[in-house]
Amino acid sequence: MVARGLVEEIAAALAAQGLIPRGGFRFAGDEAAPTGASGGAAISVLLVGQAGVAPWSHFQHWLERQHLPIVNPLDTWSREVIGTVAKNFGARAVSPSDRPYLPFQQWAMRAEGLKPSPLGILMHPKYGLWHAYRAALLFEDEIALPVADAAIHLCDACVEKPCLKSCPVDAYSGQGFAHEACLDHVRGPHGSPCRIGGCLDRNACPYGTSYRYPPEAQAFHMAAFAKL
Predict the structure, then answer these.
(1) Residues 6 or more apart from 118 whose CB is under 8 A from it?
(2) What is the pTM of this model?
(3) Nearest-angstrom CA–CA distance, 10 and 20
(4) Which partner for 92 in 14, 37, 72, 193 could form a disulfide, CB atoms 3.0-4.6 Å apart?
(5) Lowest mean pLDDT across 99-103, 168-172, 174-178
């Protein structure tokens, strides 16, 4: 039985926290699907995330009300607010940071038809690199899901690739991500621009700039990445 209108109701609930549905799909019958809320195999998955910085003020207001330090506050906030939505709609919420890890990037590519940028972040035709996936809602029923259009991969038309030319230590290249070089630079005496304003390579991307995170949000994410 297909539940119609459910995604629209979930979208309205998520909007109160600046979050949005990010597409979904149904698991094939021969897939090893994760479990849903009651322990049975999930049939449908709906991704949840953000476009631009819409959740930032909601997260900040929540963080101000916490009386004790939280190690991973954004993950904690995401689990709390999305978990409530999941419970209200009979789903199980899972997070990209849950162990064992679930294939969130593969799910996202499948749900929205996106491809990775040279930085590894999925390139969105509207949001550019300024979006994120915060959770997935797993349903043990078949739900009506939006059909993903074939997304234009903007990186294919980008000849200059400024995202590969702005990092002082060339952290991104055809050989992959130089994790240690990036960390050493961000933590070092010359890493202030990255610490204050975020990844220079990511900021150099010409697409989706109206959705770019503000410096304070980028500094928060960089501090979490580099454990500053």
Answers:
(1) 155, 161, 163, 164, 172
(2) 0.94
(3) 9
(4) 37
(5) 174-178
